[in-house]
Amino acid sequence: MTPLRFYKRSPIAAPAEFAFLWHERPGAFFRLAPPWERIELVRQSGGIRDGDESEFRIQLGPFRQRWVARHQHYISGQQFEDVQIVGPFHKWTHTHTIVPDGRERCFLVDDIEYELPGGRFGNWLGSNAIHAKLSRLFEARHRITAQDIAQHWAIQQHGQVAAMRQGARNSMRILLSGATGLVGSALTPFLTTGGHEVVALSRSLRGNAGETVIWDPASHHIDSSRLEGFDAVVHLAGENIATKRWSSEQKKKIRSSRVDATHFLCEQIAQLERPPSTLVCASAIGYYGDRGDEIMDETKPPATDFLAEVCQSWESSTEPVRKKGIRVVNLRIGVVLSPQGGALHKMLLPFKLGLGGVISNGRQYMSWVALDDLVGIITHCIMNERMSGPVNAVAPCPVTNREFTKTLGKVLRRPTLFPMPAFAARLAFGEMGEALLLSSTRVSPQRLDECGYQFRYAGLEPALRHLLGR
Q1: CATH classification of the domain holding 77
Q2: Model's pTM, two decimal places?
Q3: Torsion on CA atoms 96, 100, 104, 110, rounded to nearest 10
Q4: 311 in the same domain as 192
Q5: Which ranges of 238-279 does DSSP label H, i.e. alpha helix?
């Protein structure tokens, strides 16, 4: 029986050797997972060389399917192949090839031969659906791969990192708090595929002991000796502001997890003999509060509500590090879009059911950023010495709630006829609803524009289509 075939070829703006190395590094598996798919890596023995295996679980309709792939036919800098040992297909052989195209460009080629269960009848019955699914999957994979590799190659070529200019090395050692959160879990594989080492700052052990520095900010416990020798620290940890109503106790947790924990960490860093050269610390566009349709760049003053006060104190708590002479970036992050978590994740079910609609009058502005762009922005801030002080981490095209609702409905092909009145948002969510659903914050990424960051997704519709595979 003749097997079915899927083939895709895409250009990459980097040398073939560099692109192949990206696939060999830790994190490539996670970067290649499409945003809308839930893929769980169960185990991984080695990498992509002959005999190495990966076991993972994928979602097929309502079921979780086990898949075991074994690698073979590895040729350094050129190709590798994986064969399904256990999985949903009768047969599956996937050949990955990197084809040079001059000195600084190449092509990524994915060539898959497969057979469906049920022989010729199974192939006839399911071939169109499987081909459509593979087209959707590999369109996203090739886009992510090309974007990631191009950014890493540009960083290496331009020599933006001080250590690179000094000839010390082409990689960095980075300490990351919030590594298991929505942003941290995407940032880690992005950095490691770029050749950087990432160590988690965590309350519990993750992986090998060398991959984690244990701390407990509530009890002011940290192994300060393990903080020595990092090139950069990225601090993302903090209590989720959207999981509970804002009682007095919850407000204390939100403030303490950001302000007190950050101040404690910064005091420890400031006392190091070999401190990092850079701290990228999360903040939020809540700094600006409810400002109608006024455009907020980094020079605008803060508001006076709860979130604004927390953000001001949060940014001020990095002062011990700044006084030490360490470059500090206070990243004012907008609404992060990802189907894996955050606001978009919560919206998807009602919108898919056709129950979505505008909130209040729909005129309030929403300043958003796609998760892949936020990962790229953080990396840009780590690597680029021109970045310091407050930086608005938002896409350049904020939209009103009505525009967002209309666009999400269009991408999902669903009506958006069920509005949420302002009083209902206040009744359901209290002060949190007022701050997160009803306030209008129209933010501009002025500093990112000035320092040359190139957005992957500047417009909302392309961002949603990428994230949702539509």
Answers
A1: 3.30.530.20
A2: 0.91
A3: -20
A4: yes
A5: 248-255, 261-270
